[in-house]
Amino acid sequence: MRICLRYSKNKDEAVEMVNDGFMKVFMNIHRYDKERSFKAWLSTIMINTSIDYYRSRIKKLEMEELNDKHEVEDSENILSHLHYNDLIKLVQKLSYAYRTVFNLFAIDGYSHEEISSMLSISVGTSKSNLFKARENLKKMIAEAPEPSKQKINY
């Protein structure tokens, strides 16, 4: 559920993704390699299910192409200013395109080349969507009430 919440717009959408994901787990349990971690296998299925959900809606969205000289800003880590739940609420407010690329890159650790292949978009679009997602998140963080700006305590 935690993975799907990151990719979804709201909890109802996340529940739909989780249901679809577990259906895939049950339909493909015979493919599970018992020598490997079940948690990693399940996480991969949930991420891919979330991406499939995104793809099914992509036709409704207009993807924005990157201007050739658009650079991704890495200087500020926006995650360090928020509690996990606060971040998820803000990420859920992003468009499908921005939310998906942000999750894949910033949280799940995929490269822009991998994201490009997974989502059938250009590398430039992936970089652009990440840049714009970060900009939107920064704006939302700046406008957030003070309790949301506390640092994460682990």
Question: Mind explaining what this structure looks like?
Answer:
The chain is mainly alpha-helical. It has 2 domains: 1-60, no CATH class; 64-154, Winged helix-like DNA-binding domain superfamily/Winged helix DNA-binding domain (Arc Repressor Mutant, subunit A), CATH 1.10.10.10. The chain has 7 helices and no strands. It is globular.
List keywords for this structure.
2 domains; 0% strand; disordered C terminus; Arc Repressor Mutant, subunit A; mainly alpha
Task: Give me the secondary-structure topology.
Elements: H1 2-7, H2 11-27, H3 38-58, H4 84-92, H5 96-107, H6 112-119, H7 123-143
InterPro entries: RNA_pol_sigma-70-like, RNA_pol_sigma-70_dom, RNA_pol_sigma70_r2, RNA_pol_sigma70_r4_t2, RNA_pol_sigma_r2, RNA_pol_sigma_r3/r4-like, WH-like_DNA-bd_sf
Pfam family, one: Sigma70_r2
Domain RNA polymerase sigma factor 70 region 4 type: 86-137
Query: How many beta-strand segments?
Result: 0
Biggest sheet statistics: none
Cα-atom radius of gyration: 16 Å
CATH 4th-level superfamily of the largest domain: Winged helix-like DNA-binding domain superfamily/Winged helix DNA-binding domain
The average pLDDT is: 80
**Poorly predicted runs of 5 or more residues:** 62-76, 148-154
Structural class, please?
mainly alpha
